[in-house]
Amino acid sequence: MKDFIKKYNLMGKVIAAGVSGGADSLALALGLKEAGCQVVALTVDHGLRQESAAEAKYVANIMAKNKIEHHILVWQGRKPVSGVEEAARKERYRLMFEFCRKQGIKYLATGHHMRDQAETFLLRLARGSGVFGLSGILPLSERNGITLIRPQLDKTPEELKKYLQKKNISWVEDPMNEDEDFARVKIRKFLPKLAEIGIDEKRLADTAAVLAKTRDFIEAEVNDFIKNYVRNFDGAVFCLSWAKLKNLPHEIALPLLGKLVKEIGRAEYRPEAYETERVLNKGDDFRGCTLGGCELFMAAKRLWIVPQDKSGVVMRKQDWELFVNEHQKYRNCGLPYKARRAIYNKLKE
Questions:
Q1: Whose CA is closest to 17, among 34, 46, 39?
Q2: Residues 28 and 72 in one domain
Q3: pLDDT per residue over 282-319, tens digit each?
Q4: Which residues form the domain of 118?
Q5: 69 with 197, same domain?
Q6: For residue 119, is it within any domain?
Q7: Which among 173, 179, 150 has a CA at the least distance from the CA of 84?
Q8: For residue 111, which of 25, 74, 83, 94 is within the disulfide window of CB 3.0 to 4.6 Å?
Q9: Residues 250, 335: one domain?
């Protein structure tokens, strides 16, 4: 932990930590404090199990004993009857991000460990992900203006439990971790079979780390292309030469288009590689499609990427005229209608 904190210059920083009561998250909060960080522990009570409120209070007691600030965030409202795991994950992050923004906290730590990395690699392999997906969970990433950190990716679950045992701290076992209705649980239970042929958690995590280095190189190339050849209209619209995109090496074009779609679509992840590839395989007669919450279309031999608008509301000509009176830079741009509408909607938010 201390090596991670030193490497990323986090000593003394205020770091929020998601703490569920499981061994990995309890070890995270305690380890961050020992490493010299100011820790604010956040426990999300999803209200999906009768025990959840008591577990949140249990975490509060442990944090209090270790002099760590702690807050319980409650998922209010109706709960879904299907897709519960994904919905709970999204709500958990939403509540923690919201807390961090309100408190001015720049860093949010999660307890992901080596086995999580191995499971993620296999899940994304099953979905047909490319280099960016298979590089797995990153040590640092940006989301919603918050830096997510994962300092325990080099630790196994067993190591984290031993750390807690030395401190005489018990942890909570989530029964959902045994529910084979979830794909991740199925993969977790299959990992021992892979280990029998030498494909263990460490091997999978090491493979993800190697791919992450490739990802870093490709990302640098992608960012350089975006800087020089992609026009950005206030984060509402991107456009670029279709010919330039098609002439790029496939290894650059694929993540490039995925990144642009992710940003305009305000998505958590890039579209799957096979979905993006379908667009890149289109010929010069390509006219448009939807992808990752975006609409892609051609105008003046350029590819335009705008948010998908399902409202059906038509922007009136007088609306645009009033808008460009306030934003003169857009008066003589010759923008396609869908681009004008996207820019108008974004800047009027």
A1: 39
A2: yes
A3: 998 999 999 999 999 999 999 999 999 988 888 999 99
A4: 2-206
A5: yes
A6: yes
A7: 179
A8: 25
A9: yes
Q: Are 160 and 24 in contact (CB under 8 A)?
A: yes
CA 211 to chain centre: 18
C-alpha span between 189 and 174 (Å, rounded): 15
* Model confidence pLDDT, tens digit, residues 131-163: 888 999 999 998 878 999 999 999 999 999 999
Residue of 232, 234, 233, 280 lying closest to 256 (CA atoms): 280
| Total structural domains within the chain | 2
CA 201, 202, 207, 213 torsion-angle sign:
positive
Domain annotation covers residue 158:
yes
If asked whether residues 123 and 23 sit together in one domain, one would say yes
pTM: 0.83
Instruction: Please provide the size of the chain in residues.
Output: 349
Q: What is the Cα Rg of the chain in Å?
A: 23
Distance CA 78, CA 262 (A): 29
User: For residue range 22-58, what is the model confidence (pLDDT) as tens digits?
Assistant: 999 999 999 999 999 999 999 999 887 788 899 999 9
- Could you tell me the CATH number of the domain that includes residue 103? 3.40.50.620
Regarding whether 279 and 138 lie in a shared domain, the answer is no
Same domain, 238 and 184: no
Residue 256 placed within a domain:
yes
- Which token pair is 33? 């404090």
Buried b (16+ CB within 10 A) or exposed e, 124-133: beeeebbbbb
Both 250 and 326 in a single domain? yes
Rounded Cα–Cα distance for residues 185 and 183 (Å): 5
Average pLDDT of the residues in 110-133: 92
Question: β-strand 302-307 against 237-241: which pairing, if any?
Answer: antiparallel
CB atoms within 10 A of CB 326: 9
- Band of the pLDDT at 327, cuts 50, 70, 90? very high
Whether 212 is covered by a domain: the verdict is no
Domain boundary among 143, 172, 206: 206
Residue (of 284, 278, 139) closest to 215 by Cα position:
139
